[in-house]
Design a protein that fits this description.
alpha/beta, Serine Threonine Protein Phosphatase 5, Tetratricopeptide repeat, Helicase, Ruva Protein, domain 3, six-stranded mixed beta sheet, 50% helix
Length: 467
């Protein structure tokens, strides 16, 4: 119910003159400006029926979607505009916001910088900061050429190791990774019950029930190596583990660690661990960890081996309690390239296989992906049966493609048309599974011919099956 008299008058006028396009467009814009996002979306849809190719209406509808976190729908609405040469720069910024919401940082950055290069006035400082956070000054590194080296002394009145504000994460010199708070938990991860139970026992319960585990000399903290085919949900699972625990979450990318100057990568790694220790309990997540923990026997340069040595030293800690409350989760698609020293007890000694989803898990994933969309009666099991070898990322692609088609139909009809089972089945026919078969073929080579230590016995049932 609108509580604004002016908006109520506009809505009544639009009701009496349903074909008055300028009036409908003005009402939609006012609703959007005042935060009535659902009502704004409905008015833009109605206006789009009157003018299906109006760029302003499509842009307004896309903005309503973005502000409701319906990023896929926003991109579908913007697609005709982005395909035209010389599209308005504002459209590029809006597309960048939607792409960033979808997790596609690279394409978001391209759209944003291309847009502001044509019209700097459309720049969005918050969006720019999220796309490329400025690096934090490091010990011994000058902030600008010709200036003194950055001091290690904290600001006046602030003690070493004390956060600048009681509610803010503790800053650590040299750490470019950021503290997050995950809103996911294990209920948001479909299937993978054995994997979730393994993480509960190995990482979460020692923090949730410290007295019981202390009786057996088990301290909170430790490391787990998640491995499996691309797109199976390893990053999603790590975020859910942090949310399940209510812990801080640090997602460490390669750019946060690797540096062209000798010694800087090791310093960045040390600072990242220190950031986690100062904000414990904390889940420290390293994706593509094989790039930071590769086998030293394969390295020709001493300084690359030093980074692996530093990583091992940080996992061990300077004393037995250094990493208490720090849960290290590492993920890789190529566990056989990780240095064997990481599998020593106390490090990443607990490898956990994240398998491709079985039919029941695929149906559960589809239910989660579709839970916030208008639906007809659905048979997710039927879709799961025709999506063999699909991982979570592939299934998201199926749902996104079906939504795009349904959105176009809804725009033409002027009302939301529910998503149905045939829509998902049709989309599944046009989406090919990504890299599961190739990954399993590689895994088979290691399991069958390079498994003298028994490290990959867990994969044996999989590689001997239908793969």
């Amino acid at each position: 119910m609108l509580d604004d008299a002016g908006l109520q008058a506009l809505r009544e006028a639009a009701r009496l003159s349903p074909d008055n396009l300028p009036l409908r467009q003005h009402l939609a814009g006012q609703l959007l400006a005042k935060g009535y996002l659902g009502e704004a979306e409905a008015e833009y849809r109605a206006a789009l029926v009157l003018a299906p190719k109006d760029a302003g209406i499509m842009t307004g509808l896309a903005e309503a979607f973005v502000r409701q976190s319906a990023y896929g729908a926003a991109l579908a609405a913007l697609e005709p505009l982005l395909a035209a040469p010389g599209y308005p720069p504002k459209v590029g910024v809006l597309a960048a916001r939607a792409l960033l919401g979808e997790g596609d940082t690279a394409r978001a950055g391209y759209r944003y910088h291309e847009a502001i290069s044509r019209d700097p006035s459309v720049g969005d400082a918050d969006l720019a900061a999220r796309l490329s956070a400025p690096p934090t000054p490091t010990y011994g590194a000058p902030a600008l050429p010709g200036q003194p080296y950055a001091a290690a002394t904290p600001p006046a009145g602030q003690a070493y190791g004390a956060p600048a504000h009681p509610s803010a994460p503790t800053p650590v010199d040299g750490a470019t990774a950021e503290i997050e708070r995950s809103r996911l938990n294990f209920a948001d991860v479909a299937g993978m019950e054995a994997v979730k139970e393994s993480l509960r026992v190995k990482l979460l319960l020692p923090i949730q029930q410290p007295d019981l585990f202390a009786a057996y000399g088990k301290r909170a903290g430790g490391g787990v190596l998640l491995y499996g085919p691309p797109g199976a949900g390893k990053t999603h699972l790590a975020r859910a583990a942090a949310g399940e625990l209510g812990a801080s979450f640090v997602n460490v990318g390669l750019a946060d660690i690797l540096d062209m100057y000798i010694g800087s990568s090791e310093r960045n790694l040390r600072a990242t661990f220190e950031l986690a220790r100062r904000n414990r309990p904390c889940v420290l997540f390293f994706d593509e960890v094989d790039a930071l923990a590769a086998r030293r026997s394969d390295m020709r340069q001493a300084h690359t081996r030093q980074l692996v040595n530093q990583f091992l030293a940080e996992l061990d800690g300077v004393d037995q309690n250094a990493n208490e409350g720090v849960l290290v989760l590492a993920a890789t698609n190529a566990p056989w390239y990780v240095d064997v020293a990481f599998r020593r007890p106390g490090r990443l000694d607990q490898p956990v296989f994240v398998p491709p989803p079985d039919p029941a898990a695929r149906a559960a994933i589809l239910r989660l992906l579709c839970r916030d969309k208008p639906l007809a009666e659905m048979d997710f099991d039927a879709v799961a049966r025709v999506t063999d070898h699909f991982v979570g990322a592939d299934l998201k692609g199926v749902v996104d493609r079906a939504v795009e088609v349904k959105l176009q139909q809804s725009i033409s009809a002027g009302r939301p048309i529910p998503l149905s089972t045939p829509d998902l089945l049709a989309a599944a026919q046009s989406v090919r599974p990504t890299a599961v078969r190739e990954w399993m073929a590689t895994a088979r080579n290691y399991v069958m011919h390079s498994n003298d230590s028994g490290a990959w016995d867990e994969l044996m049932p999989w590689v001997k099956a239908k793969w």
